[in-house]
Amino acid sequence: MNAPVKFYQTGTFTVGNRLLAPEQRSVQASTERSNSLNSGHRACQGCGEALGARYAVDAAMRATGNRLIAANATGCLEVFSTPYPETSWQLPWIHSLFGNVAAVGTGIAAALKVKAAKAGLGQSAVRVLAQGGDGGTTDIGFGCLSGMFERNDDVLYICYDNEAYMNTGVQRSSATPYAARTATTMAVGAEPGAERGKGKNLPLIAMAHQIPYVATATVADLRDLEAKVEKAMTIHGARYLHILVPCPLGWGSASHDTIKLARLARETGIFPVFEAEHGEVTAVTKIRHRVPVDEYLRPQKRFAHLFGKEVAAQAPAAPAAQGGASVLARPGAGAGQGHPEMLARIQADADRNIRRFKLLDEPEVH
Amino acid sequence: MDKPFAITLDPGSSLANKTGTWRTERPVYVDRLPPCNAQCPAGEDIQGWLFHAESGDYEAAWRHLTRDNPFPAIMGRVCYHSCEGVCNRAKIDSAVGINSVERFLGDEALKRGWRFTAPKQETGKQVLVVGAGPSGMSAAYHLRRMGHGVTVMEAGPLLGGMMRFGIPKYRLPRDVLDAEMQRIVDMGVHVQLGAKVTDIAQTMVDGSYDAAFLAVGAHIAKRAFIPAKDSSRILDAVAVLRSMEGQEQPMLGRRVVVYGGGNTAIDVARTAKRLGATEAIIVYRRTRERMPAHDFEVEEALDEGVMVKWLSTIKRSGDDGVLTIEKMILDAKGNPQPTGEFETLEADSLVLALGQDVDLSLLDGVPGLQTKGGVVQVDPVTMMTGHPGLFAGGDMVPAERNVTVAVGHGKKAARHIDAWLRGTQLAPTPKHAPASFENLNPWYYSDAPKTLRPLLDMARRTSSFDEVQGGLSADNALFEARRCLSCGNCFECDNCYGVCPDNAVIKLGPGKRFQFNLDYCKGCGICVAECPCGAIEMVKEDF
Amino acid sequence: MLQIRIHGRGGQGVVTAAEMLSIAAFHQGRHAQAFPSFGSERTGAPVVAFCRIDDAEIRLREPILAPDVLIVQDPTLLHQVDVFQGLHAEGYVLINSQRSFHDLGLADIEQRYRHERLATVPATEIALRHLGRPLPNAVLLGGFAALSGLISLDAVGHAIRAKFAGKVAQANVAAAAEAYAFVRQELEDLAHAQAD
Amino acid sequence: MLKQIEGSRAVAEAVALCRPDVICAYPISPQTHIVEGLGELVKDGTLTPCEFINVESEFAAMSVAIGSSATGARTYTATASQGLLFMAEAVYNASGLGLPIVMTVANRAIGAPINIWNDHSDSMSQRDSGWIQLFAESNQEALDLHIQAFKLAEELSMPVMVCMDGFILTHAYERVDMPAQAEVDAFLPPYEPRQVLDPAEPVSIGAMVGPEAFMEVRYLAHAKQLSALEVIPRIAHEFQQRFGRRSGGLVRGYRCEDAETIVVALGSVIGTLKDTVDDMRERGVLIGVLGLQSFRPFPLAAVRAALQHAKRVVVLEKSFSVGLGGVVSTDVRLALSGLQLHGYTVVAGLGGRAITKASLERTLREAIADKLPSLTFMDLDWRIVNRQLEREAQVRRSGPIAENLLRDVGTVASKVS
Fold first, then answer.
1. Residue A158: what are its φ and ψ, rounded to 5°?
2. Does residue D275 share a domain with residue D154?
3. How far is B506 from chain D, CA to nearest CA, in Å?
4. How many domains are there within chain C?
5. What is the model's pTM?
6. With contact defined as beta carbons under 8 Å apart, do A104 and A71 qualify?
7. How do residues C94-131 score in pLDDT, each as one tens digit?
């Protein structure tokens, strides 16, 4: 989305850059950043959701001058951030239920609107953020989310998508990708892992509501993510931001690979990063170094069966709060041969994304 | 606010939960030795001065560079920049144009008149430097900076040694050479020109010097026995190149044959072209692959119309300079062997470029000093000869013979002379582990191919002695500098600070780098994986 | 306590009739309670609504099982539902019809109840003339005022204006007045007939 | 100001007088007229500023209410029956978070079989949700209770459910005395939240509480409800002082002083019972009625005090716990523990079955003669029931019971009662 500043040592791919003008610097590079999600939270090592949440909320805090209220759906983010007697949040924050966070956001926005009116203001300076995981967004919270969209309530909804119900121990959600192994789509049988032709694409569904702004992002591209949050905050009405946040526990990946995997998801075309306004795609982040899907899938134990690998007996250590460790402890099926035909399908899906969203630069004509 | 028990909590209170206890591995910041620095014969901190150049602070960059090498403008022209050969960036697109940036900084310094600062205080020690070539002047510079009194004795009429008498103008314009020499003289270095030292021992006593650095170079041309008629005109390369500095230029004629395969042979052939020779032919007994001359120079020579007869030796020079050539073939070891197959070649003159020997006469009778194979033996660590207080470097000691190596010798010798004068010994500085490409995360470096320096157009290259290679513009130099990956050393990109899911990295501010907050670091290792330049590594926690 | 039960079909404004009746009574300073026989009936289905009028607070919440007054908005119900169920011996009956009780096949009713408390009025025709729509509810209230004298035509007019506005209100008031006059006339004729 | 209006309209106007900031609306009979009325008042500018939100479900209605209340807005919604069950999770959450939301429940039965008519099964199903539950006897009391409910909820920072009988009250036109805005403003101060989402003073609301503190949290909720046992009568008293009407409170007795038999009931049936009692008293029967205005908190002491001198207690309720019997009766029995009283549970009016004076008197006379079974379903059609039971005795399988019964009854639509 924002092109690398040319001639710079690292372009704008890194978090910071001493050579950038102050106004070009990222929120995360600043010692003034609000650390909305403070240290001491109980997220697993290398948690993509903890990272994505701080990226997004800090950016929203800067965009609103710290006049922000957040509502949070039940899920990892809620459980690891607010176990009595400690909370990691540094902004006004509320958790109500698993399936109602969008509606809670609507309520907050409504209250703020009335407060503003009573103060003789056109609109409230305080803005609303509603956030949840993919389960709370695409499944149980979908009704409330669609209602919030349809009424065009002044709420920015952020979905932290780690592609399964991680908090309950890695069960399949409607955001779980084809072939992925979860506790409810085990890697056994003829077609191991999540079945084909199921699941939903929430960004596209959000676009179908014709809301002012829909965007996708990943934890691998901080500046893009921050720019999208900032842009969302310049708009009033319903806005949706879908952030891919790898989960070392649920994906069976190394804790240090969290950002790398998010990057590969985009560079393979598996996760298109784009922006849409009023239902129309207005910008896409082009693939910089295209790679085959294998590179993305191979480091994840949830796809081990595609490569005919036995899954290591020990799962990444999970703190007591998360109960998911056992899932990965089971040996993967399909050991030996692997499933090249499934790999081919995943590659074909990625290629379709690349065509559909024009993720590759057209070869220049000379 | 009247908060309900347990349900409503105060902000940020999770700081009480020290998640650092989960950790089994700990990230630590490291510094690794970048390949360019490791490679530089002059021991330059290339990454260090590029860092300043990246932010456009060219004077800081120049001052950082000249801590190790006082001749950036010369280096930027004549250095064979082996640093670029090992640059990690080559594995992404192409090596950083270190040499071109160095030249830019050198030229910028001359343009802006940046000078070296005289030493804070004098040590009162006197050091004699024999020979005003790159090695000698480098030593003089460093010794002077350390506060020693320095006297340079040069047999020749001008400063620069081989830089002046061995390297043609079109590669090193003389105004540049003069300026960088003068800058050292201006530091308070005493120079005696045309002062040939014949007896070093006596000279030391006369001048009551505390130590001496010998760098007389190698000026005696090697001869090869070629049966020749008196009529045939045979010269040696060193003489030809030296005479280029004098008033009347050498008469080489229209057909010039150069015998040899080193850089000097190339220089002579290209010089002959510029002097009006219609044909300049190099005769070399091996193949191009085995030619000691640097490829880019061979390339430039061929571009200019210099011709080369590969696998050929000259057997004799007959009437009117008709040369008899024998074809050679390479044996299994790659050595040329005669074939008994002959041909002839007409030449107005034959220039022999078969290397040079050192004039060691000034060392006669110096106790403890050893020579071997025509060069002086020195301790490779300290550059000291067998005679205490007597150091040597440059072409007169066993080493590759080029300007950069010579400059390096000068620096190294100066540091050990200084130690020796203080009656101490220099402890070898511990070297960091090398920064290999595998340590890097290249994703973060934006795509930026190398910028090429402009080349002088062909007509003027073959007709004049104008400098062939131009310099970079300020923009290009900045761009080129910013292509540096800062291999193995933190350049404060803030990645570790940003990517930590636990806010366990403390940013200490510009130039101060970062620090880990081990109270909260869970040891996930993302900071290590996402550090572009490999300046962090994980170490096991010991329990 | 006066208890009125109104029968009709969904869409004929049966419930509204009961409500207007309660408003009329309220206007005359009395306590009143109107409520429908709750259900999900749709247009055309038989509907019942109730109204209680008293001088004291009305606490009773049961449906009206023994009405003092019956208003039948749709004569076609007469042989479908037992509209007369529980009707008080001294009760009033007002039926929306051009025909007499006898012609409606209600001879037995004529026998059992006091003639001067029985009346029919062509409320639909009157409504059509005034409103252009077959809405007999307000019209019948005018007739009821005449038949029983328990509420005034003026109060009925007030109730109509409380429920409707502008032209519709005017038309309904006029229609109610015509029904009032019509029933008055009926009763006078009946009185003369009995006098003879 | 006296008005002859529908119960729903009366409640809508009363709620509007309380100046709510946010109203969440979702249609379900018999509550719908209330939010329709409020929607109109907001749209025509009578009630402003106020956000009237048409949500997509009752679950969303309560969820929006949670968000707005936590942000310091006075918040109202209304529902009934299936709607209350659909929002149940959020109902518990609102009380757990201590948010002073006021909600009208227009009491209605719960299906299957689907039934839109009145009984108390819906609010009884949320008996343990931590909400205060007040029951209205008449439209006037329903109106008055809403004004009291906001004061009560905000003083205790806990949600209040005002229960009124669906159709019987919501759809009944009655005389009500509507207070003036100034009077209500004087009685009900602006909402000052106990906790609020405010960037000036950030807090995290809705923490996860483990075994180490959960029981304490629950106990504190209970303690708060117990404190309501003092606050409710106090507010009712203040209300009476200002408006000159006796509305709300914990319990209200009618002719109980010398009564040997006391009928305990909730909601609009109390009116019918009062008439029944008057008739029976005329015939010399010493009987009275005890109305419960507050069901949660349950006024154990007040109930015991009101009943302890009677010989006989009949609990008449419009709900029952399948497999046990009376719901209210269980609580009344607890209030009477240790007292040797004859106790009867009469379940009546389920799914809108009319409760007639005649049936009541007949049933009560049986009770007085101590011939009444301890659990009685008033006006139950044994003919139908027994026929189905025989059917089931013959064929052991679950079948479409409701359909069978309807076949036996013949369609109810045209029946008067």
1. -115, 125
2. no
3. 24
4. 1
5. 0.91
6. yes
7. 999 999 999 999 999 999 999 999 999 999 999 999 99
Length of chain C as a residue count: 196
Q: Which of B1, B4, B9 sits opposite D201 (nearest CB)?
A: B1
Taking the C-alpha atoms of residue B282 and residue B288, their distance in angstroms, rounded to an integer, is 11
Give domain status of residue D64, yes or no: yes
D83/D205 same-domain check: yes
ipTM above 0.95 for this complex: no
| Phi/psi of residue C33, nearest 5 degrees | -140, 120
Contact at CB, D205 and A67, closer than 8 angstroms: no
Same domain, residue pair D232 and D279? no
What confidence category does residue D415 fall into, taking pLDDT thresholds of 50, 70 and 90? Answer: very low
Edge to edge, what strands does the sheet with A156-161 contain?
A280-284, A274-277, A213-218, A239-244, A156-161, A127-133, A68-72, A93-95, D204-205, B8-9
Report how far apart, in Å, the C-alpha atoms of D100 and of each of B6, D65, D273 are: 18, 10, 33
Whether residue D226 sits in one domain with residue D134 = yes
Instruction: Assess if residue D406 is contained within a domain.
Output: no
Q: Which residues of D touch A103 (CB under 8 A)?
A: 55, 59-60, 63-64, 67
Span A226-284, pLDDT tens digits: 999 999 999 999 999 999 999 999 999 999 999 999 999 999 999 999 999 999 999 99
Strand D22-25's sheet: what is its strand order?
D51-54, D22-25, D75-79, D102-107, D160-165, D132-135, D294-296
| Contact between B288 and B310 (Cβ < 8 Å) | yes
| CATH number, domain with residue D125 | 3.40.50.970
DSSP conformation letters of B204-218? HHHHT-SEEEE----
Determine contact, residues B518/B504, Cβ cutoff 8 Å. Answer: yes
User: Within this chain, do residues D194 and D262 fall inside the same structural domain, yes or no?
Assistant: no
Q: Which two tokens stand for residue C133?
A: 């729509």
CB–CB contacts below 8 A, B to D: 47
Residues of A in contact with D209 (CB under 8 A): 84
Per the CB < 8 A criterion, the answer to whether B140 and B191 are in contact is no
CB atoms < 10 A from the CB of A319, how many? Answer: 16
> Confidence band (pLDDT; 50, 70, 90) for D325?
very high
Residue count of chain B: 543
Hey, where are the domains in chain A?
17-289
Rounded (5°) CA angle D297-D302-D306 = 140
Bond before D112 cis per omega within 30 degrees: yes
pLDDT at D303 (0 to 100): 98
D155 plus D264 within the same structural domain: no
In angstroms, what CA-CA distances link C149 with B25, C27, C92, C98, C117? 98, 15, 11, 22, 11
Could you tell me the residue range of the domain that residue C47 belongs to?
Answer: 2-195
In total, how many domains does chain D have?
2
Of the candidates C5, C34, C80, the beta carbon closest to that of D172 is on: C34
Q: Is residue D12 part of a domain?
A: yes
Asked whether residue D256 falls in the same domain as residue D145, the answer is: no
Domain extent, residue D106, equals 2-243
Per residue in A150-187, pLDDT (tens digit) is 999 999 999 999 999 999 999 999 999 999 999 999 99
Does a structural domain hold residue D394?
Answer: no
Q: What's the longest Cα–Cα distance across chain C? A: 50
Q: Which two tokens stand for residue B317?
A: 């020079």
Beta bridge partners of D346: D316, D376
Q: Are residues D323 and D227 part of one domain? A: no
User: What is the rounded distance in angstroms from the CA atom of residue B101 to the CA atom of residue B62?
Assistant: 10
Task: Report residue D383 as tokens.
Answer: 């003919």
> Do chains A and B touch, with touching meaning 3 or more CB–CB pairs less than 8 Å apart?
yes
Fold of A17-289: Rossmann fold (3.40.50)
Distances (CA, A) of C176 to A262, B49, B383, C183: 78, 104, 129, 11
- Nearest Cα of chain A lies from the Cα of B97 at a distance, in angstroms, of 14
| B422 contacts: CB under 8 Å, gap ≥ 6 | none
